[in-house]
Amino acid sequence: MDWLKNLPVVGPWAARLMETHAWRAFERLDRVKWTRLAAAMTFTSFLALFPLLTVAAAAAAGTLSTTQQRTLQHKLAEQVPGISDQLDIEKLVANAGAVGLIAGALLLFTGLSWVDSLRGCLRAVWEMPDPDENILLTKAKDLGVLFGLGGAVLITLVISTVASGMVGRLAREMGLDEGGAGGVLLGIAAFTVAVLADFLLLLYVLRTVPGAHPSKRRLVEAALIGAAGFELLKLLLSGYIQGVAAKSMYGAFGVPIALLLWINFTCKLLLYSAAWTATGKSSAPASPAAALPSAPAPA
């Protein structure tokens, strides 16, 4: 892409762009073949999605009230824009008690595979080798990460629900109308709450899953980029994903195809966030292996 720097008018702008951290992060992604990594993450995420939803629904059915279950159902539907109606999350929650045990067994298998794929892809972005560990120890760590992710998701859902309730209550007390300027303010507040919840979850994922040690500044920046990007994706791609699901040419495969597209977009955003944390001040790899001192030359 260096030839862009020699073009008239746009050359200086291209040179400046290629010196930014955002461009160096993209160069890292291109170097590690990020489209292949996103494809691997998409496949395992798609397989693990429904067992994860079913176990969450089964846990909710046994511990939450009807109103709280509906709130959880609404929050889950918000994460899959445009096709939540076709996924029939309501029926999934209603039958969670009957299928919870089956889904729990599937979750143990698909969930561990998903964590392994996620960790491997994020370590590939960091250009870190796979750890040489006992397979049982590795699976035990993956199980801990899986439960940790479940806890992190639960915490972010609680924070999002509480914050959304506070925003709604404050809006009612202030007498804000849902139309006009009041609606815009409420929309901004809801967007901010969602970004905060996603930010906390990404902090855990980007720091814990790959086993790397990014700087605090890059970690916070990457989590903010990923959180805001995820919410913007939901706003911008909702109609597109819904259109894919509704196309008659796909038949019964419309919803799975739309879901795969949505997961793939999300995985690519996560990989870019990881690349942001892994990229140093220069274009050279910033992996831990690169920091090791070289062997002295023979005398």
Please sum up the structure shown.
Residues 283-299 have low confidence and may be disordered. Helix content is 76%, strand content 0%. The chain contains eleven helices and no strands.
Walk me through what this model shows.
- With 299 residues, the chain is an all-alpha fold.
- It has one domain (9-282).
- Helices cover 76% and strands 0% of the residues.
- The protein has eleven helices and no strands.
- It has helices spanning 10-18, 21-31, 34-63, 66-78, 84-87, 89-94, 96-125, 135-174, 181-208, 216-246, 254-278.
- Helix 3 packs antiparallel against helix 4.
Descriptors for this entry?
76% helix, single chain, 299 residues, globular, mainly alpha, disordered C terminus, 11 helices
